Every structure is written in C-alpha cells, then in structure tokens.
Amino acid sequence: MSSKRPSRLRFNFGFFLEATLGTSRTIELNYPTIQVEDLTLSPLAGTFTATRTSEGVYLSGTLSSTIIGECVRCLEKATIPINLKLDDLFYYPPHTAPEGEYALGDDGFIDLAPLVRELTVLETPIQPICRPDCQGLCLECGQNLNEADCGCEPDPIDPRMSALQKLLDSSNN
Fold first, then answer.
1. What is the average pLDDT across 140-149?
2. String of DSSP letters for 129-141
3. Residue 83 CB neighbour total at 10 angstroms
C-alpha cells in the first residue's frame, strides 16, 4: 500500500463516464496555499470547466497564483505572479490516450497536480526580478543597491576603449 498522500487537486469525474456528450461542470478553486509536488503556490484560485467529449473529458479555464523565487539582480525573494491556462483533454478510456497525454482513470479520478505543476514551471520567468526598478548588487563589493549606496568608485574606462570615449567626448562638445 502506498504511503503517498492523495493530491488536493484530485477530482472525481466518474459521473462523466456515463454522461451524454456535452455535459459540463464548472469547478471553482480557491486554495490559500497548496503544495503541488515540489512547488508551493499561494494562493491558487480560478475556475475551469470540465466537458464530456467523445474522446474523454476536456478541461478549460484559467487559474492564477504566485510563487516565491529569487531575484536575479539582488538575490532577494521575489513574488512572481503566474497565470495558468487549462486547455487539456483527459482521454477515456485510458488505453486510447496517445503516449504522453493525460488520461481519465477507470476510477473516474483526475489528478490535476502534474498538469498544474507543468504549467507553473512553463510560466515561471527564466530571470525573475523582485520589482522593475531593482538596482541589483554592486559589482565590486556586493552591496544591495536597493538598500543603500555602497560608495564604490566606478571603474575607469578600459584602455582599449579610450579611443571610443574620445569620440563620445568630442560629439558632446
């Protein structure tokens, strides 16, 4: 017997197995905080519609959440807003699902946790920043420039670029 706890994003759509085509239900989610595998989403809210199709159960809707990441400029915590668009078909019966696609189990349950995790990872920016005007860290001493000025002197121009500096200086006169 598995000791793994069932996901809080596991829904029973067993009634769809015998439902007529086009039958649909709207589900509203409002979790203050939820753990989705290795990610913490806080909050996870939104609505989606489940519709019975000839191939299975089609889910469509939008969920919104935030995750905590690390700012690439100042290395502080960054709250990153995430919008997840559900647009997926869960095949039924399961053996009809193409390889790599989701399937509705014979028990009628759909676990949205893997799908929500996948969409969250895809929506997470590669280089998150804590705020648009983040100044980052000083390249010399490492001071967080959002908190205070470090007092470091700017580097003198690279001698190889001095000819370009003279051009810039002469164009300003």
1. 89
2. -SSTT---B-TTT
3. 11
